[in-house]
Amino acid sequence: QQLGGKGRLGRVWSSPPKTGLWFTVLLRPDAAPVQVSNLTLLAGLAVCRAIRSLTGSEAMIKWPNDIVIGSRKVCGILTEMTAEADRVHFAVVGIGVNVNNREFSEGLAVKATSLRMETGSPVSRVALLQGILPEFEALYNEYFIDGNEDWLKSYKKVCVSLNHRVGAERSGGRVTGTATDITRGGQLVVKCDDGSRIEINSGEVIVQGIYGQTC
Question: Phi and psi dihedrals of 102, rounded to 5?
Fold first, then answer.
């Protein structure tokens, strides 16, 4: 049972007993912080693949750290690290999947779902974990050891944010446009309505239609 679940920006993550899969992976990559920022994307791809393989659900990734089925969220990922300018001491990747939830509170029902709700049947949390960890390990080694970038091509194929209208809050104000690409560094490329092109490193990005949001 998870007693203190949290999401991005300190938000509370609902963790009813015996319903979800919530775990943290501790890593010590021999890499610069700028490289380690892609851990969230790697974890997202691993979870997406595992869910698809185990349940047949058309899981997709909402850049950078949410897994959605249809327009509702089934998984959130939070990566934090302790680092210096040129090296990372350690990184923790927290993954929370709504597995066997039967319902959500009124405030969450419009934007949250579970694997059970999507498939109509209970899903083994153990089997899901056994699917996620090997996928994550393989992607981790592909990225940090082999230097292979095939993972990024795979990520783009299941990223629901791409080629959709998006909105984001920037220091200069709100911007809207179309997400067109993801860079090697994991930034979301947006062609703005005014014709400019920007790269978003992090932050809250709204995707038209996801979670019932508009932009």
Answer: -95, -25
